Amino acid sequence: MRLFHFSDNPDITVFRPRPLRVHVDRPAGQEWLNGSFIWATDEAYELLYLFPRECPRIVFWPLAETTREDRALWMGHATSSSAVACIEQAWLSRFNLGQVFRYELPTECFEPTGEVGMWVCRSDVIPVGLTCFSGLSAELSERNISLRVMDRLTPLKSIRQSTLHASGI
To answer: What distance in Å separates the CA atoms of residue 91 and residue 58, rounded to the nearest whole number?
Structure first.
């Protein structure tokens, strides 16, 4: 397993646990996730972070149980794509000009959060690798992810009731 942290800062030499900026209401038993941590994602979910910081997006992809109807309804012409990434038009120029730095982190101190692909560490971490992604649209394309630019993401609200996996940031 590989773990990554994505940032717009290329100069991080040590990651230190930080408190959440915004408290999140969590289900019973997961309140501990509002503590001070270093957050990381595993390789399977890094596609969610190939965007400029703070860029609102919804990324969805078919699962084994995805119905033909949901695939046609939500993926449209992108049915051969591994995923569809949706951003708002207002973010397109920042996306096109943006770059993202992927820090690879050692896995030893990380523990799973119970949320898909997310891991946390309670102590300082020194990264073991750094990759810069620029040309984010090309990066998505190389991963067979279709980019969909929309006026607003709100029409995708009901995708969470579909048989596709959907993640929004």
So the answer is: 13
Q: How far apart are CA 63 and CA 40, in angstroms?
A: 23
Gap between the Cα atoms of 127 and 11, Å rounded: 11
Q: What is the pTM of this model?
A: 0.88
Q: Find the DSSP H helices in 1-135.
A: 68-70, 92-97
**Which residues, 6+ apart, have CB-to-CB distance to 82 below 8 Å?**
61, 143, 144, 145
Judge whether 10 and 103 are in contact, CB under 8 Å: no
Structural tokens at position 151: 């006026």
pLDDT digits (tens, 9 = 90+) for 71-129: 999 998 767 889 999 999 999 999 999 999 999 999 999 999 988 899 999 999 999 99
Token pair for residue 135? Answer: 């040309």
CA distances from 95 to 47, 65, 147 (A): 14, 32, 11
| DSSP character string of 63-102 | -TT--HHHIIIIIGGGTTSSEEEEEEGGGHHHHHH-EEEE
